[in-house]
Amino acid sequence: MLNCRSLFLPAALFGGLISARFAALFAALFAALIPALIPPISAALFAVLLHAPAHAQANPAKPSGQPYTVEVWSDATFGPDGSLQTLQVADAAAQPAAFVERVKKQLASARIPPVLDSAGQPATFETGVRVQYLVTPAESGGTVRLTGMQIEPRPLRRYAASQPGGVPADTPLRVRVQCTVGADGRCPNPKVLSADGNYDALRRWAAASLQGWEFAPQRINGQPVPAEVEVELTLTIDNLKPADFRDPRKL
Hints:
Layout (H helix, E strand, L loop, with lengths): L1 E6 L4 E2 L2 E2 L2 H14 L7 E2 H8 L1 H7 L9 E11 L5 E6 L7 H11 L7 E2 L5 E2 L1 E12 L6 E10 L1 E4 L15 E9 L9 E5 L4 H12 L2 E3 L1 E3 L2 E3 L1 E9 L16
């Protein structure tokens, strides 16, 4: 079983990779915006808006009563002044209209520092936007709070390489992988940043998996530009060995 979560890392600037300082500024501005957006809604209402199939797909096997995170992806265009011009929620047709409109309303005030083109002039910037909601169930319905927004290339295709051998079963193993998304939306040279345990096979599996991913590249004035992404993969290999029901006294 594979779970994956992409983490915020640089968007593109000056035709190359954005600096870490600029990425931090992005995050700080979004963090400041979040409390000013629409207040928390009830978990019951959120469940109705999001509907069960999509909810289960985004967060499989969540412990009953425990808080969990829901992620929603959108494609956004920011103008030369950094204001949001257009927003398209990914897979909007599969989501209830009320939920899509709520996401758009929450992001309508989003603003980023102007992105500059290779000539140093403010430019139009197209990118993926990942929004995170923290769902806290409760007997009275619980709450759903908008907790984060990240600017990063949106994954179009996720891929998991064949399960590696030599790693323990029934044990979730996490791997953080970094790569540069090229103008073609691919990650040819992933770099493993950290991994649970000391399993070379796990690290090779994570790198091979990310090489199969495809992203919508970020664009400055319509031209695709490279951007770094950081992805966390979690691999759990199910133990399919049947239980031994034989009576040991008869062996």
